[in-house]
């Protein structure tokens, strides 16, 4: 039986309570005090799905809608980096279920504009909360347009050849935050494969259909 990735031991509960007195937090999903993400909202957003992105197996924690969308926006746009720990635990559970526990997690690098705006790289933050080996083996090259403004075919062209990968061998899992068409994941896979890596799959925090309005998707790829 797999352990519950969100279950806390007694000492963790006491520590969380003590920290809450010093730095009050509230649930990004329902505004309940005490936790960045309460157990009720964590259970509500966790709707794991498996996708095929042109031969790449992608596991997603949630659909980008309702509470899940609110939580993702809080992490990506509101600076709620404390959410990375419980959300990373949910992603780590998907990695184990897929049988990818021995692979190295490779986060998709953000654009320079996104990194300047936020001050942190969301995929890398999530990957490092998965308690697995993480390799910063991808880097962006050139300047891609904001994916939120583009249609399906335009997204594919926009990220084609957008990444360079460090040469090497071994199994890797690509990590990203939001998937719309899978164009960014496919571009990352192509770069890693060309560099000699064996891409066994990808894991994302949320997936969203392209029909969702672009304004509501924080950097979907």
From TrEMBL:
Short name of any one Pfam family annotated for the protein: Pribosyltran
Residues covered by the Phosphoribosyltransferase domain: 171-209
Protein family according to the UniProt entry: Belongs to the ComF/GntX family.
Protein's name according to its UniProt entry: Phosphoribosyltransferase domain-containing protein
High-level lineage: Bacteria, Bacillati, Actinomycetota, Actinomycetes, Micrococcales
